[in-house]
Design a protein that fits this description.
Order of helices and strands: EEEHEEEEHEHHEHEHEEEHHH
Strand content: 15-25%
CATH superfamily: Class I glutamine amidotransferase (GATase) domain
Main location: membrane
Protein name: protein deglycase
Number of domains: 1
Pfam family, one: DJ-1_PfpI
Structural class: alpha/beta
CATH class: Alpha Beta
Helix content: 25-40%
Family: Belongs to the peptidase C56 family.
Strand order of the largest sheet: 7-4-3-8-9-13-12
Radius of gyration: 18 Å
Distance between the termini: 24 Å
CATH topology: Rossmann fold
Largest sheet: 7 strands, mixed
Shape: globular
Number of helices: 9
GO molecular function: cupric ion binding; cuprous ion binding; cytokine binding; glyoxalase (glycolic acid-forming) activity; kinase binding; L-dopa decarboxylase activator activity; mercury ion binding; mRNA binding
């Protein structure tokens, strides 16, 4: 298990078999507790909404932390565990309300997931954060259905973007963007990616943008990400 990541299975062990009516569903909870990063010069804000895609949240967070980026996973509606798309519960580091007070951040990250992206798209707080990040020319990174939140909030118009294939039509509604089939696409300060299978590449692209290509290549080599990326293609 990676340092700083705690996984808890909430299923209880019963001495006797229970009937189906008495058996509660089993869920997994992940606490993305940040390791000490006092010397980190770059900071990331990952906005976690109910229905977010787990891999698109955890993998980029892990990759960024391994690179020395100080990551805050912020719960959109509070600090309580957030139910993600596959019934994994992720424990945020802070509420978005509190995390905003610690800004600005070098990158704002939007995970995907249909419901998660919808919740990000409907949030006035997310709009304010993205508008501020855009005005400062800070990096904005979104993956899978996450880029549709950029469309909803009027962010990055004119940029070349990619999304999950099923989100393409929605993203292209209004012709505010040009579309790319690339697994990761960076246009100026807008960085987008396709989905769960491109989460490692997405995380490494953030690392490369903030810390440089050499650091990203060292990360890929040290942690065998090259092999993972080969399997994902």
């Amino acid at each position: 298990m990676s340092e700083g990541v705690q996984i808890e299975n909430s299923s209880a062990t019963h001495p006797e078999p229970l009937s189906q009516a008495d058996t509660a569903p089993s869920f997994t909870t992940i606490s993305l507790t940040a390791a000490p990063q006092d010397m980190a010069s770059k900071r990331a804000l990952v906005i976690l909404a109910k229905g977010a895609e787990e891999m698109e949240t955890v993998i980029p967070t892990d990759v960024m932390r391994r690179a020395g980026i100080k990551v805050t996973v912020a719960g959109l509606t509070g600090k309580e565990p957030v139910q993600c798309s596959r019934d994994v519960f992720i424990c945020p580091d802070a509420s978005l309300e509190d995390a905003r007070k610690e800004g600005p951040y070098d990158v704002v990250v939007l995970p995907g997931g249909n419901l998660g992206a919808q919740n990000l798209s409907e949030s006035a707080a997310v709009k304010d954060i993205l508008k501020d990040q855009e005005s400062r020319k800070g990096l904005i990174a979104a993956i899978c259905a996450g880029p549709t939140a950029l469309l909803a909030h009027g962010i990055g118009y004119g940029s070349k973007v990619t999304t999950h294939p099923l989100a393409k039509d929605k993203m292209m509604n209004g012709a505010h963007y040009s579309y790319s089939e690339s697994r990761v696409e960076k246009d100026g300060n807008i960085l987008t990616s396709r989905g769960p299978g491109t989460s490692f590449e997405f995380g490494l692209a953030i690392v490369e943008t903030l810390l440089g290509k050499e650091v990203a290549e060292q990360m890929s080599s040290k942690h065998e990400f090259t092999w993972v990326l080969f399997l994902c293609h």
